[in-house]
Amino acid sequence: MSKGQRPAFPNHPDNPEWRLGITIRDYFAAQAMQGLISNKLVMQTVADEFVTEGSKAIGRIAYQFADIMLEQREK
């Protein structure tokens, strides 16, 4: 399992409700996306296309930030 695919919030395997949780990459992307969509300038830039291409772009950018964060963790 690559480091970006490790769970961000794993439960202990002895727990009968055990779940892997989301990946660290997904967690980083979610945090980046929160920052992006809370930024007024970003939202003004994509407002006209937000429902279609703008929202897809924010998702792509959020995962790009997540990948950069994972690379930095390796250093």
Written account of the structure:
It is built from three helices and no strands. The two termini are 19 Å apart. The protein is an all-alpha fold. The longest helix is centred in the C-terminal third of the chain and has 24 residues, at 50-73. Helices cover 60% and strands 0% of the residues. The protein is elongated.
Rounded Rg: 15 Å
Label the overall shape: elongated
**N-end to C-end Cα span:** 19 Å
Oligomer: single chain
Strand tally, please? 0
Percent in helix: 55-70%
Strand content: under 5%
Order of helices and strands: HHH
Mean pLDDT figure = 77
Keywords:
mainly alpha
Task: Summarize this entry quickly.
Helices cover 60% and strands 0% of the residues. The protein has 75 residues and is mainly α.
Secondary structure layout:
Blueprint: H1 24-37, H2 40-46, H3 50-73
